[in-house]
Amino acid sequence: MYKDQQLYVAHSAEGAIHLIGKMANRHGLIAGATGTGKTVTLQVLAETFSQAGVPCFMADMKGDLSGISQTGGLSKFIEKRCAEWKLDTTTLKFEGCPVRFYDVFGEQGHPMRTTIEKMGALLLARLMDLNETQTGILTLTFRIAKDEKLPLIDMKDLRLMLDYVAKNAKRYETTYGNVSAASVGAIQRALLALAEQGGEAFFGEPSFDIFDLLQTEGGRGVMNILAADKLMLQPKLYSTFLMWLLTEIYDKMPEIGDMELPKMVFFFDEAHMLFKDTSKALTDKIEQIVRLIRSKGIGVYFISQSPSDLPEAILGQCGNRVQHALRAFTPKDQAAVKAAAQTFRPNPAFDTEREILELGTGEALVSFLDEKGAPAMVQRAKILFPLSQIGAITDEQRSAINAASRISGKYETVVDRESAFEQIVKQREAAEKQAAEAKAKEAEEKEAARKAKEEERQTKAAAKSSRSSSRKKSLFATVLGTAVTYFAKTVATQLARNLTKKKR
Ligand SMILES: Nc1ncnc2c1ncn2[C@@H]1O[C@H](COP(=O)(O)OP(=O)(O)OP(=O)(O)O)[C@@H](O)[C@H]1O
Ligand SMILES: [Mg+2]
Q1: For ligand 1, what atom is nearest to the CA of residue 42?
Q2: Using a 6 Å cutoff on CB, does residue 238 contact ligand 1?
Q3: Which atom of ligand 1 is nearest to the CA of 37?
Q4: Considering the domain 2-113+208-404 in this protein, what is its CATH number?
Q5: How large is the angle between the packed helices 155-167 and 169-176, nearest 10 degrees?
Q6: pLDDT tens-digit readout, 193-210
Q7: Do 99 and 66 meet the contact criterion of CB atoms below 8 Å apart?
Q8: 39 CB near ligand 1 (under 6 Å)
Q9: Residue 362 near ligand 1, beta carbon < 6 Å
Q10: What does the pLDDT look like over 52-74, one tens digit per residue?
Q11: pLDDT tens, residue by residue, 348-376
Q12: Quick check: pTM over 0.70?
């Protein structure tokens, strides 16, 4: 709880333990075995930030974080702790925080989308598990799209863009490099798999404006809760999405100096999923962003079962630590406990390693950074109880919150503006039309040529036939003439004969 301008989050035998606001952007880690109280610790920290006016973003794996939106209440457990800490229960102000729900699949909250372009080739390649060659081709495809002003917004844009690059591979060879059809085929198959994982819904417009996460209502920081129960079944989509969010915030937020309180705090539950099967290049990128984002006033808190789930470089940046109980059944577990204990500045009053194994639910070893940024000596503490409800809310409560949200309606409807897909289709249609016109023109010319030839042939034929008929005519005339002459001659001879006969 935010009390006397302090982030009061735990209580040890020596008294209240505060998270120093100025140091809250130096990141943190909440670790512990299952059921030891990690989620409630996250809730306590987040609602304390909210009370202080700091907005937060958190991924809700099991739906139990949604309770932060409702008023909590006294329980035997809380009464006992209040008595122990000499807190007057009548002064406790139980209340929920302003909450907005998000859901990549758009089912339990406002949809959260981004464009293919904003996600970038590197993150996308990781999302699809592409090898080096395929990643190279994807990067090159992004570059060509940019150079040719073909916006890559959704998955159909990227699918057609890849096809376009493959079909024009020869043209791009010298400027951009080789594009093998086999690699493009592999990327297309990976895209299909991603679409089946729900990627289709995630890429598109309106793309999410991260400044919507940085809001306060009535002086309280808005708790932005991502419904991740379905998303966490797709670890690649989950981790890539969170990486995109961090990168986007990093890119857009201005650099700020030291502040009394962070601008915003991220809580990444099941943080081990962020680093599972991650290439060295991407782990380096996550590490770099986490390191740099601090200067923008953003705190990042990882929640995981064991500190060893996180890469050394990230772990080293988590100055604020809450270690719940760990179990040590196997030699591997024992090694993890030892490693976890060694990350703390020892307290001569107890043996850290043994203490980790003996902590009860809601108890933890706590070490926050002091005013100078140095880790405080580890303390055995009890985490405060939340003033909001512990556990999930009902579907009706969720629907009511979604309907009343200030950004309700902003992202709900997908807008499919003209982008690479439409432009390439247009280009292809224009090319087809041109080809069809050229073909039609060619056919027309051929027909005209054929007709001209035919006419010529006919003229020639006509001329020939007229020549032959006149020849025939003169022959007929000759024959007729001869016949007439012969006939005349015969008649004359006959007449002469008859006359002679008569004279005699
Ligand atoms: N600080 C606390 N104040 C009050 N109750 C608590 C506190 N911490 C834990 N509890 C109780 O313990 C239960 C389990 O805690 P929580 O859900 O936080 O464990 P977890 O470590 O997140 O478990 P999992 O790994 O299964 O997610 C809570 O439902 C709550 O009843
Ligand atoms: Mg939990």
Answers
A1: 18
A2: no
A3: 18
A4: 3.40.50.300
A5: 90
A6: 888 877 888 899 999 999
A7: yes
A8: yes
A9: yes
A10: 999 999 999 889 999 999 999 99
A11: 999 999 999 999 999 999 999 999 999 99
A12: yes
